[in-house]
UniProtKB/TrEMBL annotation:
Residues 1-37 are annotated as: Disordered. Coiled coil: none annotated. It is found in: Cytoplasm; Nucleus. Residues 1-29 have a biased composition (Polar residues). InterPro entries: ExoRNase_PH_dom1 (IPR001247), ExoRNase_PH_dom2 (IPR015847), ExoRNase_PH_dom2_sf (IPR036345), PNPase/RNase_PH_dom_sf (IPR027408), Ribosomal_Su5_D2-typ_SF (IPR020568), RNase_PH (IPR050080). GO terms for biological process: nuclear mRNA surveillance; poly(A)-dependent snoRNA 3'-end processing; rRNA catabolic process; rRNA processing; U4 snRNA 3'-end processing. This is Exosome complex component RRP41-like. Residues 42-166, 170-231 form the Exoribonuclease phosphorolytic domain. GO terms for cellular component: cytoplasmic exosome (RNase complex); nuclear exosome (RNase complex); nucleolus. Pfam families: RNase_PH, RNase_PH_C. PANTHER family: EXOSOME COMPLEX COMPONENT, EXOSOME COMPLEX COMPONENT MTR3. Belongs to the RNase PH family.
Length: 256
């Protein structure tokens, strides 16, 4: 897939290496094996299902390795008076973690930042004009944090929005990558993220070939970041096919 970026917001933050665990000396070697045995450019198997929460307008469950996420969508519903004269709808996003999502309680404390990033990733894909004067609320709950949490949340939220019948320009798929010395590893697990030199996350609409969000941390050489971007775009395209298959199966499945 030949990916392109147009009008893409990019976020650059300092490298988190000062807070990372000591990296194994074999990590940069050619014989290094990833914690879960995958190849460097091999994503985790993805299990996706819609209709996970009966009380919601739409919902989805996603499981990528040990990362497990459930997303509920409510609305469109009547907005507050301040929005009554708006010609477009409003999107609200909230990301939270269960108390048992990480091995150490309270370790997952990025809910507020993740909520904002989820909003930025989804907003450009939603046809807000299709539900004027109303709001759509997206609630994502990370049941288990196994690495690459935000990309899984974003992809799962896109499925939940589709399940709720919210009009989208395209589904939204997201994939991240870690830089470990000279190695680029896609869809990293928590252990790999803990000693990465830098990270890159791309969120895109595969069918439209458009990136809705790109986040970069750490220091990257130009060739490395170009390689990482293309690998992520290719993975997003493949994930998009899996997501569409999930939606088609949900539509064709007989009602109980």
């Amino acid at each position: 897939m030949a990916g392109k970026i147009s009008n893409t917001p990019a976020t650059y933050t300092p490298s988190p290496t000062s807070q990372n665990k000591k990296r194994p000396s074999t990590v940069t070697g050619s014989d290094w094996v990833r914690p879960d045995g995958r190849g460097l450019h091999q994503c985790r198997p993805a299990f996706l299902r819609t209709g996970a929460v009966n009380s919601a307008s739409g919902s989805a469950y996603a499981e990528f390795g040990n990362t497990k996420v459930i997303v509920s969508v409510f609305g469109p519903r009547e907005s507050k008076k301040a929005m009554m004269y708006s010609d477009i709808g409003r999107l609200n996003c909230n990301v939270s973690y269960t108390s048992f999502a990480t091995p150490i309680r309270g370790q997952a404390s990025e809910g507020k930042d993740l909520s904002s990033m989820l909003h930025k990733a989804l907003e450009g894909a939603i046809i807000l004009e299709s539900f004027p004067k109303t709001t759509v609320d997206v609630f994502a709950l990370v049941l288990e944090s196994g690495g690459s949490d935000l990309p899984v949340v974003i992809s799962c939220a896109s499925l939940a929005l589709s399940d709720a019948g919210i009009r989208l320009y395209d589904i939204v798929a997201s994939v991240s990558m870690s830089c470990l010395g000279k190695n680029l590893v896609i869809d990293p697990v928590s252990e790999e993220e803990s000693y990465q030199d830098g990270s890159l996350m791309i969120t895109c609409m595969p069918s439209r070939n458009e990136v809705t969000q790109m986040t970069v941390t750490g220091e990257w050489s130009t060739p490395k970041i170009h390689e990482a971007m293309q690998l992520c775009l290719d993975a997003c395209w493949k994930l998009g096919k899996i997501m569409r298959s999930c939606l088609k199966e949900a539509v064709s499945a007989p009602e109980e």
